[in-house]
# Entry
Amino acid sequence: MVTLSIDGRQVRAQAGSTILEVAREKGIDIPTLCYHEGLEPYGACRLCMVEITKNGYSKLVASCLYPIEEGLVVKTDTERVINVRRTVMELLLARCPNSDVVWDLARKVGVESTPFKSLAEDESNKCILCGLCVRACEEVVGVSAISLVNRGVEREVAPPFYESPEACIGCGSCAYVCPTGAIEMEEVGDTRTIRSRDWKSEFKLKKCKVCGSYWAPERQLDYFAKKANLPGDFFDVCPTCRE
Ligand code: SF4
Ligand code: FES
# Structure
C-alpha cells in the first residue's frame, strides 16, 4: 500500500494504481475524455491533468497515466490545473463546435466560448481524437479494423483506405464506446450500419431460426464461433429463444 495526499486528504491505495484511479475511488472528481476503465490509458485528451509536488518541485501530469508514489502530494484544482482544463476544452470546441458532449464538458469547467479559430473545415466533426474506438477494437475485440490516421488538423479515425474494413466484424464496440457519437450505429431490417463522417460499413444480420428476429451480425457470430470453437449451427437460434 502507498500513502499519498490528494487535495489535502491523506489516502492509502494499492501500489501500481494511477492517480486517477485512486482519486475516483475516493470520490474526487477529475474530468476525463479519453479514459475508460476497461482499456489501457492513452493520455490523449490531457483533460485529467493534476499538479503533483515531489522533492519540492511541482509539475502537471496526466493523472490517468501517472502511478501513485509514497508521499506524493496531488492537487486536482489549482489555478494551473484549471487553466489547462479550460485550454483543452477551448481547443476541443474549436475542433468540434457542434458537439453537445464537448459543450457540456466545457461548461462544466467554466468555458463558454473559445478564443481559437475553428479548426474544423466541416463543422459537423464530432471526433475528439480520444482513441477509445481504436483501443476498444484492438484491445477488446482484437481485430484493429480502424486506426488514427493523418497528422495535425487532418488527424482522424478511419479504416484502411477509408473503405469498409475487411477485418471489421460489425460488433459496434467503437460506436458504444465513442463518447461524442462521432461513430454511429443503426439497424434497419436485416442490416446493421456503422458509420462516421467519412466512412460506413454495412453488415447482414443473422435471422433466428425460432423467432425470426434479426439479432447479430453474421460476421461477428462467425468470428465468435471460430474463436470459441463452436459448432457451425450454434448461433442459428438467438439467446432469448435458447433460454
Ligand atoms: S470516433 Fe469517437 S471514440 Fe473514436 S476517437 Fe473519435 S471521439 Fe473518440
Ligand atoms: S483522461 Fe488522461 S489524458 Fe485523457
Summary: The domain at 1-127 is CATH 3.10.20.740 (Ubiquitin-like (UB roll)). The chain has two domains: 1-127, 132-242. Residues 127-133, 157, 177-178, 180, 182-183 surround iron/sulfur cluster (ligand 1) (CB under 6 Å).
